[in-house]
Design goal:
Distance between the termini: 32 Å
Strand order of the largest sheet: 2-1-3-4
Shape: globular
Radius of gyration: 17 Å
Helix content: 40-55%
CATH class of the largest domain: Mainly Alpha
Order of helices and strands: EHEHEEHHHHHHH
CATH topology of the largest domain: Glutathione S-transferase Yfyf (Class Pi), Chain A, domain 2
Number of helices: 9
Largest sheet: 4 strands, mixed
Strand content: 5-15%
Bound molecules: glutathione
Amino acid sequence: MLKIYGADLSTPANKVRMMVNALDIPYEYVRVSIRDQENRTPEFLQMNPNGKIPVLDDNGFILFESGAICRYLADKQNSSLYPKDLKQRALVDQWTDFAVIHINGAMNRVVFNRIFAKRIGRKIDEQSLRDGLAFLEKFLPVVDDRLEGRDFLAEDGLTLADISLISILDPCEVAEVDLSAYKNIVAWRNRLRQEPFYKKCHDEYGEPLKKFMTKKT
Ligand SMILES: N[C@@H](CCC(=O)N[C@@H](CS)C(=O)NCC(=O)O)C(=O)O
């Protein structure tokens, strides 16, 4: 059986879990505690020398980087979540890269400074926070325009691009990122969050975060 090494608050790990759910592949979810440095053990570093989750173990075939894992699994299942047609695939790649590089880059700054910095004793970097919010203001309208009159980001059906973006936007509420100006994103997000691929991962991001925040170290 597939094994996915992840953590409930890791958006790339959740992306992989959502992908595997959408592909309907059974898997074992192995929680790795970053706080307890379980990602730094010699065994873990042998799987991923970067010490980062997610990691996939497909019967001994080890893969890290969430995008590579998602593409590998979709191709393995011959799934339209990552289409084979050259141009369809290119569009999925385009929107996936846009989401991962620009939206995720911005969200990481906001989430780190608004949620995790205090928790791990780091100073809030106000400039980085402002940059993150400014990048969101710049890039979210592009996604919102794309979703005008469309149900999905890249194709007529669900693809890796949607799964990538929905995992990236998961912490919006807890990070106080207001999406209400982006009506198409809100409608798309509300719809996808009702789907089993999402619900089998979690109902929303805030619950695991609350547990994390109240857990004694
Ligand atoms: N580009 C990587 C990012 C992975 C990543 O940053 N994982 C974080 C958790 S969200 C991690 O494992 N951090 C632990 C560390 O760096 O020590 C991917 O998409 O898989």
